[in-house]
């Protein structure tokens, strides 16, 4: 009888030990799941992928003990501007991208770049939910997560800005619908040039400047714009935000435990990605002078105009006018993020 009691005590201790081990962070036991994730960029070509998409996939595998895997596919599998359709029709399960690549399908996602703020603040302000509601109303795709980068869109110029009058008046700046409210508002001319041709256009004097969202270090390392641009204009505008989408049916078929693992992997990656982005941009800004790029800061009314043309223009074109039903909710959440960040 005494031996049996000891065995029971050992069994209870073993079970308690397993419970404590699980609480301390052991991988959760789940059934094997394989998800296929598209990316707008190939590995090694963009910080968004290297600091966001790939670490996220690795965390999912780690947290699940290898039972849940996210297989990575770059734009060679599906061209960037066709990827949203591939997710909507469940050719793939997930998509890591920027909302600019499918603005013709759902515009409101572009509004996420208006305000600076961490992913946690964006969730708490209801921004992620508000944008997800807009996507679900228009597509079979769910906006699963935002990945803020910690840096905004910065204007680089080949020529010095005007010291008096209109700071950018008379300059020719590489433009798209996204940047045009700022370019035109500052009395500059917008020139249509592809991103791949921007370096050459600046080199040949076809444009005087261009915006870039790669952060200062990315601009130096990946684009070599220091060879054709002599000025980095401050302030940077908004915050560049990458996005993770999932097919609605793919998501709904996942067990609750798998969904929890994915959400945990997202939240951990969001924090690490933004911290790394802030540090990389800071490092890049410190390297600009040595690379021959002078930091030129807009001040006073010029600065206020620069920022307001960006915020008001994007808010109108991509949020309020684009979706009268969901747009006001998104703007309310964005104002919350903006207030939290400024505070």
CATH homologous group name of the largest domain = Bacterial extracellular solute-binding protein, family 7
Instruction: Describe the main β-sheet briefly.
Output: 6 strands, mixed
The helix count comes to 12
Please estimate the helix content: 40-55%
CATH topology of the largest domain: D-Maltodextrin-Binding Protein, domain 2
Percentage of residues in strands: 15-25%
- In which order are the strands of the major sheet placed? 7-6-8-5-9-11
Distance between the termini: 67 Å
Q: From the alpha-carbon coordinates, what is the Rg to the nearest angstrom?
A: 23 Å
Q: Give me the oligomer status.
A: single chain
CATH class bucket of the largest domain: Alpha Beta
Net shape: globular
